[in-house]
Amino acid sequence: MFATFREQQLERVDNNTPSVRIAEWKQNPKTINAYEQLFENHELFTKIGYSVFKQLKGKKLPTMHCAYILSICDILLNPKSSGIKCNDKSVVRRVHTFLVSNIHNTLKFITFKIFRRY
């Protein structure tokens, strides 16, 4: 994800970053913009998706894969959440939320728009 956004668009943090710094980072306009771009910039989402699922490059990403990518990015970038640690429970909960909420329609739109040429 950080490689896709590059340093000019999103500063790098990791699990060793102090929690106070992570809270500041989550409120940074760059981070907020990156989070919003996930839902608006389909090319960006595609780049992230293919960097995660290299074996699917040139193929349509299944909806479940898109939900997984959005879940990880949501944990990391969402300014409404305080941390960046991904664990099975938090990822599964978000995947479920994305699949059963209105986001499901967004996922369908994203996958359609990105892969309509395939």
What structural category do the secondary elements indicate?
Answer: mainly alpha
* Overall tally of domains: 1
Strand portion, in percent?
A: under 5%
Q: What percent of the residues sit in helical stretches (DSSP H or I)?
A: 55-70%
Overall, the morphology is: globular
Number of strands: 0
Order of helices and strands: HHHHHHH
Instruction: Count helical runs.
Output: 7
What is the CA-CA span between the terminal residues?
Answer: 24 Å
**Rg:** 14 Å
Main sheet?
none
Average of per-residue pLDDT values? 82
Q: Which regions have little confidence, pLDDT < 50, spanning 5+ residues?
A: 112-118
Which SSEs are present, and which pair or pack?
Elements: H1 2-9, H2 19-27, H3 29-40, H4 42-52, H5 63-77, H6 88-100, H7 103-115
Helix pairs in contact: 3-5, 5-6
List keywords for this structure.
118 residues, mainly alpha, 0% strand, globular
Describe what you observe in this structure.
This protein is mostly helical. It has one domain. The protein has helices at 2-9, 19-27, 29-40, 42-52, 63-77, 88-100, 103-115. Helix 3 (29-40) packs antiparallel against helix 5 (63-77) and helix 5 (63-77) packs across helix 6 (88-100). The protein is globular.
In short:
The protein is mainly α and 118 residues long. It contains seven helices and no strands. Mean pLDDT is 82; it is low at 112-118.
